[in-house]
Amino acid sequence: MAPNRLLQTAAIAHVLISLAHTAKGIPMFQEPAFRRLPPILLGAARAGWYQGSVFFAMMGLVNWKWATDGFNDSIDLAIASLISVIYFGSSGWYVKTGDRPTAGVLSLVALFQIASLRSTM
Questions:
Q1: How far apart are alpha carbons 91 and 99 in whole angstroms?
Q2: What is the DSSP string of 5-51?
């Protein structure tokens, strides 16, 4: 079976999101507002942010696996669907806080994830 190009592209998009997310966190945590947080809150915020970066990388790996192996069962389909839900949900929060460029990128990746999923059905 030839690899699914849409899923491969989705995988690459997720890895790029992971890298951009990590890069965005570096200056963000240097902001004075973050530095005023109690250490336990700053630690939780920072840990959660970088956990998000790892999550996006994991989504890239999962999509790459699906590109070569296909979806094996309804669990794979549910995971692929939930990835889009996470991206759309995050996009909504970014719009709400005024970061429309990030919201746009996340929405595009969510749509691409859906297109990738539909291409296998």
A1: 9
A2: HHHHHHHHHHHHHHHHHHHHHHHHTTSHHHHTS-HHHHHHHHHHHHH
Q: What is the pLDDT of residues 17-74, one digit of tens each?
A: 999 999 999 999 999 998 899 999 999 999 999 999 999 999 999 999 999 998 989 9
Q: For 68-115, where are the E strands, in sequence order?
A: none
User: Residue 24 in contact with residue 94, Cβ under 8 Å?
Assistant: no
Identity (one letter) of the amino acid at 26? I
Structural domains of the chain, count = 1
Q: How far is CA 52 from CA 3, 49, 70, 76, 113, in A?
A: 27, 5, 25, 20, 18
Look up the pTM and report it. 0.87
Task: Supply the range of the domain harboring residue 53.
Answer: 5-119
Cβ pair 18, 51 in contact under 8 A: no
Q: Which residues contact 79 (CB under 8 A, 6 or more apart)?
A: 62
Task: Count CA atoms within 13 Å of residue 115 on its CB side.
Answer: 12
